[in-house]
Amino acid sequence: MPLSTIAEAQARATNSIKHARRATFLARFADTLIITCIVLLMILLFASFIGCIVSIMDQGHYKWMGILLIGH
Asked: Cα–Cα distances in Å, from 31 out to 25, 28, 42?
């Protein structure tokens, strides 16, 4: 369940509009930050997977790709 949904429900329960806006904004920001971190982690894992495949191949002009992706 997204944090923004929880924040909206809590704000409705307290009937505080100012608190509701602040909590909803912070929760949406946190949701966005979490999703961004997950996407970046997936990109990093994919790049390292490709780097492993390329380094296993390790033939001539493919070698620079492995160096570029894994950094070794």
From this structure: 10, 5, 17
pTM here? Answer: 0.55
- The total of other beta-carbon atoms located within 10 Å of residue 7's CB is 22
For the chain, the structural domain boundaries read 3-70
For 6-31, the pLDDT digits (tens) are 777 777 776 666 767 777 788 888 88
b/e string for 26-41 if b means 16 or more Cβ within 10 A?
ebeeeeeeeeeeeeee
User: Cα–Cα distance between 21 and 17 in angstroms, integer?
Assistant: 6
